[in-house]
Amino acid sequence: MTRQRWTSRAVFILAALGSAVGLGNLWRFPYLAGKYGGGAFLIPYLIALVLVGVPMLILELAVGQKMQQGAVGSYTKLHPRFVGLGILALISSFIIVSYYAVVMAWSLVYLLASLKMNWSGDAEGYFYQKVLQTSNGIEQLGGINLSIFLSLLFVWFSVYFCVWQGTKSVGKVVKYSVPLPVILMSLLLIRAVTLPGFLQGWEMYLQPNWIALLNPEVWTAACSQIFYSLSLAFGIMVAYGSYKDRDDDITQDAWITALLDSGTSIFAGFVVFGVLGYMAWKIGTPLKDLAASGPGLAFVVFPEAISLMPLSKIFSILFFLMLFLLGIDSAFSMVAALNAAVADKYKHISLAQISLVFCLLLLIAGAIYTTRAGLYFLDLVDHFVTSYNLLSIGICQSILVGWVYGAEKMRRYINQVSHWQIGKWWNIAIKYIIPLALVTLLVTQFIQDIKTPYEGYPTWALGIGWTIALLPLLIFLWLLLKDKNKIISIEER
Description:
Distance between the termini: 28 Å
Shape: globular
Mean pLDDT: 91
Number of helices: 21
Low-confidence stretches: 486-493
Order of helices and strands: HHHHHHHHHHHHHHHHHHHHH
Strand content: under 5%
Radius of gyration: 22 Å
């Protein structure tokens, strides 16, 4: 069978950008900028973009494009003993998208609730008590929250029809799902700049605190944001790269994707802090107290801010529609990475069948997050899988390409097909800078988790988290070390 292809370069860039630009661009980047030095945060952020994000994105696209396989097949072709690296990446993608889709389900609930906006005056109570119906602790499941589960069912129904025909269906969807959030974000920005207080919000967002650059935590946050925002280590960009022709440009596509992704994050910061500046002016609350991270910003602070606006229902609908669209591209890109690996191995099974099986399995896996204790499980699993699994994959990718396969060998291929030539700085980034940066992040997080158990969760719950982090890594190491003599004999032949 002929491998699927993107219908055009523009469609590929839209798909890659859709995967990269997600919910984290809207709520995590503005929060980090506000917390870590305002405008000064852009310095470590842009340095991390150039030295970590772009080199790693070029690596993943090049591996997929050269090997013409998904993550498992591509890493195996680079070296047979690294078959487990692709499996590790796909396990992590499966785990992450299983709860990422639940956050999208929350946005659907809020989208429908925007017609009444019952959260006005008590957005925090509405989110935790009415929508999530959160229990008192992780040990109290409390049963399935039906409204969240039905919304999750709709999410997976939507994701299925985005990926069931592979690049054909993905290409049709991204033509609308990628530009629309930017349009909606622009409308929210226009509304924000007509409100009093928006300049105070922008001032907090942009005013540089140069002393913050002396804090190692700032550089760590910038590096981790770039790494996660570009969908690195999920197997996505390897799969997407494999649907390009072998002689397609790599370097330009990587830079375009990375710069547009980062530009969207910076743009989102103007929207978020413009609206929060108005809220601070309206209710007299310090702006710094409003710049909450994670779901608190998207589902508590921002809805409350919107409720204070004129024409609040319209802008609430726009905001939560934007959230859903930002999430859908990232969600189906992770499923597409899973599909690619299975389709490479079992060519007789149709992509529609593979997609259906994965969507059903992910719906079942995500059910735990729709319980009354779902928020606790989501928080716990997200912490361990993003703090350990993804960083481990990034380190192993750098070792595989930089040291085992050969960074210079891969660079020659990239320059052969690309109009923009990359110098030996790329080799240095892959072999030294990226592994060192990611190992630093990994060790720092490990020491912190050992000293202070994460969020005070009970031992059995932390055990689940550590199992999620360590079991896939142990599988990778077992596959790396097993049948050593057999693999050596294959290489000799």
